[in-house]
Amino acid sequence: MSECLIWIVDDDADDLYMISQAFKECSFEIRTFTHQEAKDLIPALEKSYSRDFPQLVLLDINMPGISGKELLLTVRADNRFRHIPIVMFTTSASRQDKVECMTYGANCFLTKPSSYNGMTKICSSLATVFCTPEFSQVR
């Protein structure tokens, strides 16, 4: 199987590092690409248009400038990118945030775990769903 590309958009450098490391422990060949600013996602997608789209985007909600919710709406409104799976991966456990994100088109809403072990379990589960050949053929 070819490499699975996962993009992570989060303004917290420690979270970016921990999530990337957790994906490295998965049994899949995964390459992560990180963005600390939400405003960087659309230009990066445009640059990679029709070449190297991510199989999954993890998106934090609370970021300076453009929030994760605003970015989710922007991606879903663009026909070129609306097919890309987006998982909201945030510290929020708010029911309102979850309902809004799912209404805006998120594929899933997950609250970040407090432990590295929890992070590796979540990342492994995400890889099992989004990095399988069966899923790639559906896109």
Structure description:
This protein is α/β, with parallel strands linked by helices and 139 residues long. The chain has a single domain, classed as Rossmann fold. The protein is 42% helix and 18% strand. It has six helices and five strands; from the N terminus they run βαβαβαβαβαα. It has a five-stranded parallel β-sheet, sandwiched between helices. Helix 1 crosses helix 5.
Question: What count of structural domains?
Answer: 1
Question: How would you name the CATH homologous superfamily?
Answer: Response regulator
CATH topology: Rossmann fold
Poorly predicted tracts of residues = none
Q: What's the total count of β strands?
A: 5
Q: Estimate the strand proportion.
A: 15-25%
Category by helix and strand content = alpha/beta
Tell me, rounded to a whole number, the average pLDDT. Answer: 88
Q: Distance N terminus to C terminus?
A: 16 Å
Overall shape? globular
Helix content: 40-55%
Reading the helices and strands in chain order gives EHEHEHEHEHH
Sheet with the most strands: spatial strand order: 2-1-3-4-5
- The total count of helices amounts to 6
The CATH class assignment is Alpha Beta
The biggest sheet amounts to: 5 strands, parallel
Architecture per CATH nomenclature, i.e. the level-2 architecture: 3-Layer(aba) Sandwich
Radius of gyration equals 14 Å
